[in-house]
Amino acid sequence: MNSTDFLLTISELSIAVAGFSAIVVMLNTKPIKDWADADRLNLRLLLQVAALTIVFSLLPSILSVPLIPDNAWRYSLAIYGVVHIADVSSFLFKMTSGTQTAFKICGSIGVLVAIMQMLVAWQGTPIAWETMYLVSLVWHLCVTFTAFALLLYGMRAHQ
After folding, report:
1. 148 and 21 in contact (C-beta within 8 Å)?
2. What is 6-34 written as a DSSP string?
3. Nearest alpha-carbon partner for 133 in 145, 116, 149
4. Of residues 100 and 7, which shows the higher confidence score?
5. How many domains does one find in the chain?
6. Using CB atoms within 10 A of its CB, is residue 159 exposed (0-12), middle (13-18) or buried (19+)?
7. pTM, rounded to two decimals
8. Residue 98 sits in which domain range?
9. What is the C-alpha separation between 49 and 24, in angstroms, rounded?
10. Which of 30, 114, 119, 159 is the most buried (most CB within 10 A)?
11. What is the mean pLDDT of residues 97-101?
12. What is the rounded distance in angstroms from the CA atom of residue 14 to the CA atom of residue 133?
């Protein structure tokens, strides 16, 4: 499997998880405004990270049209790193004492992944750009699955 196939697979998995979350939301008897703060945060995080994963799964293919492939990976990684650091910083800023430990850990690791993205984009080699990019997408896919599991668990616990 080459990287393009892998990127499309990650995109499809993100779409599937976001779609399943819609089913979980529909099956809940309460409106979203009545949910616990942690459950609303899970849903927001799930949808936001799934959307980021989908967008960044497609970015290298889009950038490879005007750029040579190595530069497409480098610029994609740099853009991804900037957006990732902004996203995780915003999340960490909005965390409360009621935020689940799993998300606190994910946020802390997310900062490290974002810093690695920026460093590799700046100092890496073509193979390092592509590898770090794929690792970052897998990281975000894992965060999406974690948010989905916590959302599903939270919905079952409140019913």
Report:
1. yes
2. HHHHHHHHHHHHHHHHHHHHHH-SS-GGG
3. 116
4. 7
5. 1
6. exposed
7. 0.82
8. 3-158
9. 17
10. 114
11. 68
12. 16
